[in-house]
Amino acid sequence: MKIKEKLKYKRKAFTLIEMTIVLFIISLLVLIIIPNLSNQRKNANVIHTNTMTAVVQSQIDAYLSEGKNDKSKVNFQKLKDAGYLTKKQIEQAKSEGIRIANNEAIH
Prior knowledge:
Elements: H1 2-9, H2 16-65, H3 76-81, H4 87-95, E1 99-101, E2 104-106
Antiparallel strand pairs: 1-2
């Protein structure tokens, strides 16, 4: 009867080698994934900046296409005053290094 009791209470557990292998595999996966995430973030920032530049340029074009607007040099303040860009859009564009020169959005 004692043998049956011992077998009944015996637990199956991971060995140290099995745990080491699992941790090694996880660390390899992390080393592969982290650089890819960093590159994806850089790509997303470039795409966002290009899109924001396109938005500003389209608003400059819309502003200039209206005959009633002053067609001299367009700036962020004129676009804001005319309702073409919001304050938040202007702040975002400036933080990304977008500027207006000769009525064109430049990054």
